Amino acid sequence: MLKGVVLTCAGVAIGAAVFAKYVTALFDRAGTRPQAAAATTSRTPPAPAAGQGCQRGEAFTLHADRDGHFQVQAEIDGRLVPMVVDTGATRIVLPAEEARRVGLDLGGARRVPVQTANGVIEAELVRANRFKLGPICLSAVDVLVMPPGRLTTGLLGMNVIGSLARFDMSRTRLILAH
Predict the structure, then answer these.
(1) Which of 122, 136, 126 is nearest to 57 (CA)?
(2) Phi and psi based region of residue 28 (left: phi greater than 0; alpha: psi -120 to 50; beta: remaining)
(3) Tens place of pLDDT for every residue, the chain, 178 residues?
(4) Burial (CB count <10 Å: 0-12, 13-18, 19+), residue 38
(5) 33/96 Cα distance (integer angstroms)
(6) How many CB atoms lie within 10 A of CB 97?
(7) Strand order in 173-177's β-sheet?
(8) Domain boundaries, the chain
């Protein structure tokens, strides 16, 4: 009897884990989590920035959280911004509230169509003077600013990742080198 109870509990635990993965994937498709954003405009890649704490040839390692996401605190124009690495995002993407807090100038922003998991919306394209991630520094980096309420956390996109000398990712570790 005890063996049957143990087997039943194990089955319930496995079923709950599978269900949780299914629900997470379902929410991801429904757009309740941050999704990739891409813009149809082209820009020049960000340039390396010289400055304090900015070094070439150094690697920066991130470890996945328990959900498998790579979260990081980046700096945009000297202010810390929480971000999730998103290789499906063409550019850095910020919620409007975060862009205002950081001090990005939205007055001269260009409106561009952005393809999201929930369809095409218009975002504002601005340029940050400086982007810093650990020892990696870039200047003149394009940032897409989503309309209020459309995104809950910043996304670190391919305009930064693609400008690096190295990008190695495993299931639990991400190495970025400049």
Answers:
(1) 136
(2) alpha
(3) 444 433 333 343 333 333 333 333 333 333 333 333 333 333 445 555 544 556 677 788 999 999 999 999 999 999 999 999 999 999 999 999 999 999 998 888 899 999 888 899 999 999 999 999 999 999 999 999 999 999 999 999 999 999 999 999 999 999 999 8
(4) middle
(5) 16
(6) 14
(7) 59-63, 173-177, 166-169
(8) 1-30, 38-177
Asked if residues 64 and 173 have their Cβ atoms less than 8 Å apart, the reply is: yes
Q: Which residues pair with 61 in a beta bridge?
A: 175
Cβ neighbours of 71 (radius 10 Å): 16
Residue 15 host element (H or E): helix 2-30
Fold exhibited by the domain 38-177:
Cathepsin D, subunit A; domain 1 (2.40.70)
Q: What 8-state DSSP symbol labels residue 10?
A: H
Written as one letter, the residue type at 161 is I
